[in-house]
């Protein structure tokens, strides 16, 4: 019996080579309650003969795997490239490196903040022009098309002659290789880079006021005209970059957003844990938001509740309207004052749809003063009152664009850079703020880089749709007054906007949770005796 027990223990030793037998041997050994050490002479001889123990076996097996020489390449045939799926390249075939793993967002660091600098002129914050790389991977709809075809069909802000000159100067790169001929056909996973001389529109020079910074949350009073995140033509003239450049604050997580032309309370989480906590409160509707606005006409006295559903008309620019097929909405309004022409209204959005306050006030026939979209006559004679438009969604979009084109360039830029695009993914969930801007992207830039609420000073994880969509890590600051011979913007002289043109009369007044409340001062235009001539 003792001899059998030793043999069984020997089998346990051998199971490192025969894993399929291990279960039965261990079961048998356990039932016999064997605890005697392996000291039988036969086992000792076996170990010496093979000069192997379990650990040595595993080590030598590992060594044999690494010591195997690489198979020689066959002469005359294509060289194997890592990332090419093990396939051999045919003569003349382009090597396309595998796509790099992307972070959920691109964190902005001091290197980004140092790309250029600000200067204040005429009460406006301005940015010195700088060279910047825009990057994107080839979209599915581009596969099989030439670069020239893609530029012609989708990137029409510049002429094809411009792109041809830029390619000859090495400013357009494909998989980090300069492209001299735009006839190259795009393939899946192609990585494109476009270097441009970047100009940013000016914003109001009012400093950012930090209301709270306790290590868990950061609350600021955002001036109108400044986007929250890099978007469209804006990068350094954004809240995220101003906080980083002037206050040394980074690694923030957004809790909600405000439209570029909207002012007021803007809340960031300092830590991921706080961000998740606040995000849960948002989803469970535990947060109360209060806005104040000035609308056209005499708003009815008392409380007025609007529950009209809102539908996103265009995900690209974030245009919305009241429609029975839209998502349920509820906003409570209360008039605070009336000066004979315009009314100050308190707004309590109980749901969080894109542009909810602006769309509901348009529907009620009292659009917000200076709203570049929802007070537009492109909606018709009554400007969308009662949901009556009298045109299709496509006709409405075209009318809005034509109205912008008929006005001066500044207003066109304001419309194109309003950072209000909405992704279909973002529309599936309740937004973080009734006036949140869920942004899509386009060339040269129409929307914000961020559409996910937990990505603070990080670029949006949503798929970019242009060469100017993904935030790049490289930029070269140019000296003041430097001009680029290919840059069309350098050849233009644009008049500075007035403060009135950079504001919409909508202000986030208060943000309240179960155990906190943050509020900003009411703006001057919300005073009862304010008249429009007082604002310049």
Written account of the structure:
The chain is an alpha+beta fold and 536 residues long. The chain is built from 13 helices and 20 strands. The protein has helices spanning 2-14, 19-31, 41-50, 54-67, 110-113, 147-154, 160-168, 239-247, 272-283, 356-364, 393-406, 409-416, 424-427; strands at residues 118-121, 124-127, 130-137, 172-174, 177-178, 191-198, 203-204, 209-213, 217-222, 253-254, 263-269, 288-296, 303-306, 310-314, 319-322, 331-338, 342-349, 475-477, 506-513, 516-519. Strands 8, 9, 10, 11, 12, 13, 16, 17, 19 and 20 form a ten-stranded mixed sheet that branches. A five-stranded antiparallel sheet has the order 5-4-6-3-18. Strands 1-2-7 form a three-stranded antiparallel sheet, with no helix packed on it. Helix 1 packs antiparallel against helix 2 (19-31). The protein is globular. The protein starts with a helix and ends in a 17-residue tail after the last strand. Residues 77-89 have a biased composition (Basic residues).
Determine the structural class based on helices, strands and strand pairing. Answer: alpha+beta
* Percent helix: 10-25%
Distance between the termini: 104 Å
Give me the Rg, rounded. Answer: 31 Å
Strand-residue proportion: 15-25%
Q: Which stretches of 5+ consecutive residues score pLDDT under 50?
A: 16-84, 409-417, 420-474
Count of DSSP strands: 20
- Backbone shape: globular
Largest sheet data: 10 strands, mixed
Averaged pLDDT: 76
By DSSP (H or I, 4+ residues per run), the number of helices equals 13
Domain Pseudouridine synthase RsuA/RluA-like: 217-362
Pfam families: PseudoU_synth_2
Protein name: Pseudouridine synthase RsuA/RluA-like domain-containing protein
Biased composition (Basic and acidic residues): 60-69, 429-440
């Amino acid at each position: 019996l003792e001899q059998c027990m030793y043999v069984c223990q020997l089998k346990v030793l051998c199971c490192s080579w025969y894993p399929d037998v291990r279960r039965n041997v261990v079961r048998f050994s356990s039932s016999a309650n064997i605890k005697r050490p392996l000291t039988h002479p036969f086992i000792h001889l076996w170990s010496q003969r093979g000069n192997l123990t379990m650990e040595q076996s595993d080590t030598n097996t590992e060594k044999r795997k690494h010591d195997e020489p690489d198979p020689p390449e066959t002469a005359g045939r294509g060289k194997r490239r890592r990332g090419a799926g093990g396939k051999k390249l045919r003569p003349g075939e382009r090597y396309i490196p595998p796509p790099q793993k992307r972070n959920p967002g691109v964190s902005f660091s001091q290197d980004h903040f140092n790309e250029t600098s600000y200067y204040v002129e005429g009460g406006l914050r301005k940015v010195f022009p700088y060279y910047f790389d825009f990057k994107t991977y080839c979209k599915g709809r581009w596969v099989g098309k030439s670069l020239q075809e893609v530029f012609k069909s989708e990137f029409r802000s510049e002429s094809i002659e411009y792109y041809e000159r830029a390619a000859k100067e090495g400013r357009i790169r494909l998989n980090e290789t300069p492209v001299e001929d735009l006839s190259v056909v795009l393939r899946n996973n192609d990585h494109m880079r476009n270097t441009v001389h970047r100009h940013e529109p000016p914003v109001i020079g009012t400093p950012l006021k930090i209301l709270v910074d306790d290590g868990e949350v950061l609350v600021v009073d955002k001036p109108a005209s400044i986007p929250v995140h890099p978007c469209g033509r804006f990068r350094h003239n954004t809240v995220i970059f101003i906080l980083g450049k002037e206050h040394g604050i980074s690694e923030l997580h957004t809790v909600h957003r405000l439209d570029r032309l909207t002012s007021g309370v803007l809340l960031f989480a300092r830590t991921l844990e706080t961000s998740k906590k606040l995000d849960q409160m948002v989803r469970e509707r535990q947060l109360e938001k209060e806005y104040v606005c000035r609308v056209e006409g005499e708003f009815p006295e008392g409380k007025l509740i609007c529950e009209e559903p809102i539908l996103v008309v265009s995900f690209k620019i974030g245009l919305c309207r009241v429609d029975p097929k839209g998502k349920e909405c509820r906003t409570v309004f209360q008039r605070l004052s009336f000066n004979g022409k315009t009314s100050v209204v308190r707004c309590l959005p109980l749901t969080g749809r894109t542009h909810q306050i602006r769309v509901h006030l348009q529907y009620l026939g009292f659009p917000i003063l200076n709203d570049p979209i929802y007070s537009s006559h492109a909606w018709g004679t009554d400007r969308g009152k009662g949901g009556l438009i009298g045109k299709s969604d496509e006709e409405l979009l075209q009318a809005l664009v034509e109205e912008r084109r008929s006005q001066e360039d500044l207003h066109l830029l304001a419309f194109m850079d309003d950072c209000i695009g909405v992704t279909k993914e973002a529309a599936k969930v309740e937004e973080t703020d009734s006036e949140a801007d869920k942004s899509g992207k386009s060339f040269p830039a129409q929307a914000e880089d961020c559409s996910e609420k937990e990505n603070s000073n990080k670029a949006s994880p949503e798929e970019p749709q242009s060469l100017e969509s993904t935030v790049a890590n490289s930029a070269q600051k140019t000296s003041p007054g430097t001009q680029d011979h290919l840059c069309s913007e350098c050849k233009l002289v644009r008049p500075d906007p007035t403060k009135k043109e950079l504001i919409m009369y909508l202000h986030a007044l208060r943000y309240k949770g179960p155990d906190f409340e943050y509020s900003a001062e009411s703006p001057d235009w919300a005073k009862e005796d304010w008249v429009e001539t007082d604002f310049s």
